[in-house]
Every structure is written in structure tokens, then in C-alpha cells.
UniProtKB/TrEMBL annotation:
This is Cytochrome P450. One of its GO terms (molecular function) is oxidoreductase activity, acting on paired donors, with incorporation or reduction of molecular oxygen, reduced flavin or flavoprotein as one donor, and incorporation of one atom of oxygen. Gene3D superfamilies: Cytochrome P450. The keyword Mitochondrion does not apply. Keywords: Endoplasmic reticulum, Heme, Iron, Membrane, Metal-binding, Microsome, Monooxygenase, Oxidoreductase. PROSITE patterns: CYTOCHROME_P450.
Amino acid sequence: MIFLEALRPSRSIHVFLHIIHLWHLFMALIRRPYPERHTISSYRDSPPPWRHSGLSVLLRKKMYGPVITVYLGLQRVVVLVGYETVKEALVDQAEDFSGRAPAPFAYKATKGLLISNGERWRQLRRFTLTTLRDFGMGRKKMESWIQEESKHLVDLLRENQPAPFDPTFFLSRAVSNVICALVFGQRFSYKDAQLLKLLFFFSTLSQLYNIFPRLMDYLPGQHHAIFREVNELRKFSTEKIREHQETLNPDDPRDYIDCFLMRLNEVEKNLVSTEFHHENLTATVLNLFLAGTETTSSTMRYTMMLLIKYPDIQEKMQKEIDNVIGQTRSPTMEDRKSLPFTNAVIHEAQRFLDLVPLNVPHYATKDISFKGYIIPKDTVVIPLLHSVLKSVDQWDNPWTFNPNHFLDHNGNFKLNPAFIPFSSGKRACVGESLARMELFLFLVTLLQHFTFSSPGGPESVDISPEFSSLGNIPRRYQLIAAPR
Ligand code: HEM
């Protein structure tokens, strides 16, 4: 029996959340859209019908309180609802809530930064953040990689003229190539769709595995194929690491692997106990791929979907871009502050998509005293990003796609602290800067070169997500890219 209760004993209520949850998982597995397709209008401001789910129940924090216990089978999960509560946990009591919940699927597939705890997590996270900042961003190298990749993407779309096409694989290949450049120091041909197939499987099947790990081990099914493919990816990474080792020049590190190997060699020389060893290198490389590709490319796919749904918004972005950059020069991150409307649209697309509504579950690594409650050690904690990104207390019209959420009365960009699609605090996404750079540079470049539309017109575009359980995955759709 699964039930949900407010932590205050006087306000306990039973909700059959598990039925909704299992329904979502089932829908995700059979890979069909929801039984009814709903198109939401731009000026609605109530949860659309596809939102009347377990998540929306949790959103009603005034009814259940901002700290809720949900039982999934025997597993107790504490859900934190609303901006103030999520911030208090992730920022004000950051250390207490920095644990990562056990994830059987992920453990079986790969260990590493994303799902580790304690000293291993601390060392790998610090190293990855520093390497991404110094190696990638600091030297502007990342910016030039993305500019370069944007050109390949534009060429690919031009080749595809004039037929309508599904942009999913086009965008995923571009985004995964940026991670390839960061990690392996090279990009791959767009014809290689192997990694994308793997990531698609991951995004759907892992949800079921996490809830029924033992059962899933015995059941036949596609998830076994995923583990085989992860092993292929692991073999590929191991081979790349070996090549890097043979050609490493400590005076000129080429990528993430080189930086890791330098640290590993240093540690071996001094014989100290460390988390910098080959197993963690391979695992963290896989983490960066798995966490960095599907997330960013789905967000780009969704933003482009919103642009064909709302052509007037697309036109306004193009005008702004034409005025500031023109149609030939590659955009740089410096341009972002001169493009407030474009910046606002990208932020609003991320808020509205709410890609990771439940966050990646956290874990109480000790007894935590929080808002007058004790959250016992080993409790799974979900700081509900959905409840912040769609909060009526934080956004004028949370269920409406409206770039004005990020603009002041003078049309200047205005950040809202409740914009936390990457989460917040010690465990927040390490790829945030990279993802934001990719979203901005790729989308601006595409709008410089193409006007996008839908073969069936804006009315035919259904912007509700296809799966809405642990992730809001945008639907597949057809796109026309007309050269400008
Ligand atoms: C739009 C794109 C992205 C979104 C919305 C996103 C969102 C998130 C979220 C919500 C978390 C969990 C934070 C928490 O536990 O509190 C996370 C963690 C993580 N993300 Fe991202 N992410 C994106 C892109 C990326 C990219 C490009 C990379 C890699 C370069 C990446 C690597 C990671 C890693 C390694 C973690 C685990 C951090 C840790 O456990 O300490 N993500 N991300």
C-alpha cells in the first residue's frame, strides 16, 4: 500500500499515488502517447488536463504542507514542496541534504559522480567542476567547440531541404558531439546514432528498474539490452582512455580525460589513497554522457517546438538577433546580455518544460532536523523542482508560456531566483554553464539561418510532454526549416 501524508499527524491523508505513478511508468514503457492529446493555449493559466496527476496533487502544498511523506511500497520518501522549502533544504541546509539516493539501475549500469556519496562524490565533483570551468569555459574553448558544432548542424539541416523532418536525432547528435569534444577531445560523424539509441532507452526503462530492481533482473526485456549497450560504451571509453594515456602531454591537456589522467599519475607517484583511479574515470565519463546529452537536446527540441507553436515569438527573436548580431557572424556568450528577449524565451522554455520535475532524488545521510521535523537517516528526499517552477507564488501565470516572466517593464532581462531547472546547492547540476551555453549558441545560430514552422500549422503542434513521470519528455514532431 502506498500512501501520502503530511508529516503533521493531524493532517494525514491517503492518496493512491502509486496507481498514477505506475500508470506513467507503464505508458513510458509501451512508448505510446497519453490516451487523449491535449493542446494547451498560450493564455491558459490553470494546470492543463495532462497535469492532473500525482505531481499536481503534491503541488497543493497549502492542503498537505510543504513537507510530505510518500510511501512507495516500503520505501519512505520525503517530498519538499515550494520555493522556500526547497531552498531552505538545498541551500541553507546544503550539507545535510547533499546525499544521493540509491539508484539500482544506475548502480548496475555505471557508478561515478552522479550517484556516489561521501568522499568519492566530493573529490569527483570538485575535480569535474574545476575542469569544466578552467579547461572548458575559462579558455573560451567550449564556446568555440559549440560554434563549430552549430555550423555542422546548420549544414545538416540545409542538406535536409525541403522535406519536413523530426529534429530529435539532429539535435542529439550535435549535443552529444559537444560532450565528445569535452571528454574525448574529438567530434564524431553525424551518421553515428548508436549513443542516441542508448540514451533513449535509458530515459524510459530506468524508471521501472529503480522501483523493482530485483524483479527486473529476472524479467526478460529491453533493459538487459541496455546493460549490454552500456558495456559497449564502457569498452569504447576504456579504449579511448588507453589511447589518451599513450599520447598524453602534461603541458597541453586536450580534454577531461587528459586532466583526469594527470591527476591520477600525480596521486600514483605520491602513493596516497584516492578516488582518482581508472574505474572512477570510466564511470564519470559515462555519467557526463548520460546526464549531458538527453537533457540538453530535449530542451532544445522543446524550445524549437514552442517557436513553431508561437511564430510571433520566433519572429521577435529573429529581429532581435538580426539587429544585434546579423545573420553571418557566429554568436558569442557576450551577445547574451544584448539579447534580452531571446534570453528570456530560452529561460521560459526551460521553466515551462520542467524537464526533471522530481529532481534527481537526494538522501538523508544522517538524521536531519528540518522545519521542526526529524527526517531519519537513509530517507529518500525529493526536493520537488516542479513545485518551484510552476509555483503560483513565484510566477504570474505559471501554466502559461510567457517570456515576460523573465522581462521587466522596460524589456530588460530579469532573473527570478525560483528559476531552478538545474536544481540548487551542493548537488546542483555540474553541467549547468555548459548546457546554458549550448542552448543559447545553438538556438541563436539556427534562428540566424532558418525560419522554422510546422507542416500542419501552429494549431497542430501539441506542446504537452509525452511522458510525465520522472521526466517531461517533449513529443516527437515534424519541422520545416526554411533557409532565410
Ligand atoms: C538542460 C540541461 C540539463 C538539465 C535541466 C539538468 C538538470 C540536472 C538536475 C536537476 C540534476 C540533479 C541536481 C540535484 O541532485 O539536486 C543534475 C545533476 C547532474 N547533471 Fe545535469 N542537467 C542538464 C545538463 C547537464 C550537462 C550538459 C551535464 C554534463 C556536462 C550534466 C551533468 C550532471 C551531473 C554530473 C549531475 C550530478 C551532480 C551531482 O550529483 O553532484 N547535466 N542535472
